[in-house]
Amino acid sequence: MWALPLPPLKPCRFRERKNRFLVEADVGPLHLPNSGRMTELLLPGTPCFYHPRPTLKTVGRMVLVESQGVLVGVDASLANCLLELLLKEGFFGSLSDLRKEVPFGGERLDFSAWIGDKEALWEAKNCNRVEEGLALFPDAPTPRGARHLRLLSAFARNGGLAHAVWMVQHPLAQAFALDPEDGFLYRAAREAEEAGVRLLAFRVRPALEALHLEGELPWVWLPPKENLEGHHQGHG
Asked: Average pLDDT of 41-51?
């Protein structure tokens, strides 16, 4: 449907992860713009593709990895770019006064705009964890993600249009779900849905030249974790 062009990429092989945002490859150290664990993707010897842009600490930025015979996107910052593409292509309707990095409630949300006479907010999230066709988010606990959803909920309850959009950079995804293991995020998403926040997930098919935005994924609500729900209820 839509395509986000990528910068020129070169092949490499993953060796090890040094910290959340730094990996070692056969070409040298690479910036990894993704705080997820990605243990199923980042295996020693895995073929990867990076954008060569040397800095003091790295030789470039990792963008794609090969897994199960397909390319998977690991640059989480591109979720914002994909959402911006949707916004500018009119997926959410005719927009006016589109702004990025909007201060709101002590945080920064990704986009704001007006749709007719209503103000709207959007927050983009990245996902590249897929298990047996089901995309799962998050790959590591994300208190920040829960805070963003609660801000969107408050905005929606006050009459605004609120959207949380997950970009799944994995072509094998057939549906999307929030992992109940992150109880805070799971509950925040349930509350957001009840408040009228629009929750969306899109499958993205990475290629060497572009990320192809293919369309919406069905949303699946997995059963909540009993102990997490009980703990939550016990503390009111």
From this structure: 98
Q: What are the beta bridge partners of residue 3?
A: 212
Of residues 180 and 225, more confidence is placed in 180
Determine the Cα–Cα distance for residues 21 and 28; give it in Å rounded to an integer: 14
* Contact (CB, 8 A) for 186 and 224: yes
Residue 92 identity (one-letter amino acid) = F
Which residues is 72 bridged to in the sheet? 65
- Report the SS3 class of residue 96: strand
Reported as a pLDDT band with limits 50, 70 and 90, residue 225 is confident
The two three-digit tokens of residue 157, written as one number: 């309850």
What mean pLDDT value characterizes the chain?
Answer: 94
Pairing status of strand 161-168 against strand 134-137: unpaired
pLDDT given at position 227:
55
Q: CA-to-CA distance for 128 and 191, rounded, in angstroms?
A: 24
Q: Give the span between the Cα atoms of 25 and 45, in whole angstroms.
A: 9
203 touches 168 (CB < 8 A): yes
DSSP label of 136: E
